[in-house]
Amino acid sequence: MFHRLFPACLIRSKTHRTLCKYLFINAANISNQSFNVLGVETSCDDTAVGIVNSDRKILGEAIHYQHEIHEPSGGIVPNLAMVNHQTYLPSVICEALNNAELDMAKDIDVVAVTRGPGLPGCLGIGLSAAKTLAAVLRKPLIGVHHMACEAHALTARLTHSSSDLLPFPYLTLLISGGHTLILVTHGIGHYTQLGTTIDDSIGDAFDKTARLLKIPWLKGRGGGPGAALEQYALKGDPKKYTVPIPMRKDARRKREMNYSFSGLKTSIKDLIEKYKLNLDDEIVRYDLAATFQHAATIHLIDKLELAFEWCRNKGIALTALVASGGVASNKSIRLTLERLANEQHNIPLICPPPHLCTDNGIMIAWTGVERFRAGLIDKYTIDHIPKWSIANK
């Protein structure tokens, strides 16, 4: 398919500068033509590859999970994650291509890859593989920021049920194991960060609380300690215990759009110690899980309300509230966010399907589609950026 978009002489060219110059000039001119993008994601633990068509069709994907090797340590072990990426990435790429029934050389037009943020060794494995594939096969290369208004937020434009792309601007809530962010997504590469976490991310707080409550990890895609806590919370009473909602006591911090989740885990720990609660009792663990989840959800809503107020004061007419990241697959949180968006602000809540909320290759491939159309093509010499500020994306 690549030969339909670009002259054969440029495909065979040994001068990458010539190819890049041609692509920058002509990317905007092929928006009505169909092309395929392969995306590689190795920012943390799972090894994922996805293939997406510019017509919003998911063609194939594959993923290798690492939950079992990290659970004994209670969290991600970077060296183990890196070795597993190195071991399984080639076979995951092959599996994704086989699932899509596509040939890498003939059918893939663009290669996209997570460039950051993430674990340095893990990012390096994926980036090296993607750069090699792109360079050898003379494909355009797209480096992707897998957070914020890049992969997680843009995936909503792929999965949105309407036949048209979800229009800008929309409010983006990214809630994951690594980040908690509120942004206004104005367009590709254009956004305003309104708030972040000043300590733990919401996903990290879920994970730490699950370990505190000795909840076994949930297996499979979208699993882990935080997902397991959600299952326990479904069986518990969120009003059995009371914990303080973060940032409500101090008047200044109450008006900030930043989050703080570290104190919630401490509050649960204090409850256990104060009442000498028996964590061998499943009912106790159910109720504590529900209490934590309820307080975390209220904290999310508090700051989102401030974000909606900010947008209203700036005259920004939002088209939707987009929630993504691993914690966005939490059904209770989704339901609360949906009520906030629909009933209080008269806009839809747009969430990718739960299996696309966690890190995956599909979202990287789709961001490759969006950035390629905008002419945002990278050189084969790009490096990974483990700590990649959204402001510098």
From TrEMBL:
Domain of life: Eukaryota
Protein name as catalogued: 14876_t:CDS:1
UniProt source species: Dentiscutata heterogama
